Amino acid sequence: MPFTVSAYAARSATEPLAPYQVERRDVGELDVRIDIKFSGICHSDIHTARSEWGASNYPVVVGHEIAGVVAEVGSGVTKFAVGDRVGVGCMVDSCRECESCRAGNEQYCSKGNTGTYNSIDAEGKVTQGGYAQAIVVTEDFVLRIPDSLELDVAAPLLCAGITSYSPLRHWNAGPGKKVAVIGLGGLGHMAVQLAHAMGAEVTVLSQSLKKQEDGLKLGATHYYATSDPETFQQLGSTFDLIVNTVSAKLDMGAYLALLKVDGTLVNVGAPDEPLELNAFALITGRRSWAGSNIGGIAETQEMLDFCAEHRLGSEIEVIPAGKINEAYERVLASDVRYRFVIDTSTL
Ligand SMILES: [Zn+2]
Ligand SMILES: [Zn+2]
């Protein structure tokens, strides 16, 4: 039988989020019912709650950084048992047949993956996300959270963690490589830790030196203010890889000039307005400008295991449900170090 659980939902683009009873589907043969313990707040949640990326289906329960415990499994489930510590990220399904899905890149499914919220699932219903006390997800899209990772610290890894990890792996961040991270926010603070743990030499490029101490503590060797023009003169042709976590318009040519020959700048942040580029910035150093979107399910598991092995996680501030709207304003003001996580027992 379908059931309802306590949640927080946006009822329109302009109203604050408020308590809501969300319906979950019956636990099917291959489904896992998860009692959600913690749910991270991602900037995408705010965009969706406010219809900033197109009209959302209201009421919408957002949240795709979900950590909890398995409460029930379907008769055909083989990977999980009641009591297991698990997570769910940005996807809850995909076609599983296209070239991308077969390669383990479900995030690039040619038919479009099913987002954890505000997406249409196989039954034709709108998916509802993690600001809730439970969720039902097919087992293939459920991740195992290693015992050594606390659930609250693990939650943001399911989006911010994998979004940073995937490009670092794809472009071979590791010993002997110089990696720069633009922006030290929710994504950037994970990218710094991960690149450092992979063995790369990490530089933070931040607007100011306000968070320098944090950046060095997280594993950066160098920290520069991009508001200082000297930075760009000093760092020309320095990096093998630059990960741009900033969702604002930047002078891409200035940043591309910091890449060595054959270097790559990869965008994981997505500004609302188009970014401009003079092709000479690429041509003069055979440089590449790329993008990357979260990671596949197998790679997300690899990231969680990597974080457990290297004892790293997100820096978090746990909040009760009543503070979600205030937290949104603080995210927009960059007033968070570095991720808000909702304690879902307060929903
Ligand atoms: Zn996210
Ligand atoms: Zn597919």
Automatic annotation (TrEMBL):
Name listed for the protein in its UniProt record: alcohol dehydrogenase (NADP(+))
Q: Which reaction does it catalyse?
A: a primary alcohol + NADP(+) = an aldehyde + NADPH + H(+)
Species of origin reads Kineosporia babensis
Q: Which Gene3D superfamilies match?
A: Medium-chain alcohol dehydrogenases, catalytic domain (3.90.180.10), NAD(P)-binding Rossmann-like Domain (3.40.50.720)
One MF annotation (Gene Ontology) recorded for this entry: zinc ion binding
Extract the PANTHER family matched here. ALDEHYDE REDUCTASE
What EC class is this?
Answer: oxidoreductase
Cofactor(s) the protein requires to work:
Zn(2+)
Q: Which family does it belong to?
A: Belongs to the zinc-containing alcohol dehydrogenase family.
Ranges for the Enoyl reductase (ER) domain?
12-342
As recorded in UniProt, its EC number(s) are: 1.1.1.2
Keyword terms of this UniProt record? Metal-binding, Oxidoreductase, Zinc
Q: Which domain of life is it from?
A: Bacteria
Q: What is the lineage of its organism?
A: Bacteria, Bacillati, Actinomycetota, Actinomycetes, Kineosporiales
For this protein, the record's InterPro entries field holds: ADH-like_C (IPR013149), ADH-like_N (IPR013154), ADH_Zn_CS (IPR002328), CAD-like (IPR047109), ER (IPR020843), GroES-like_sf (IPR011032), NAD(P)-bd_dom_sf (IPR036291)
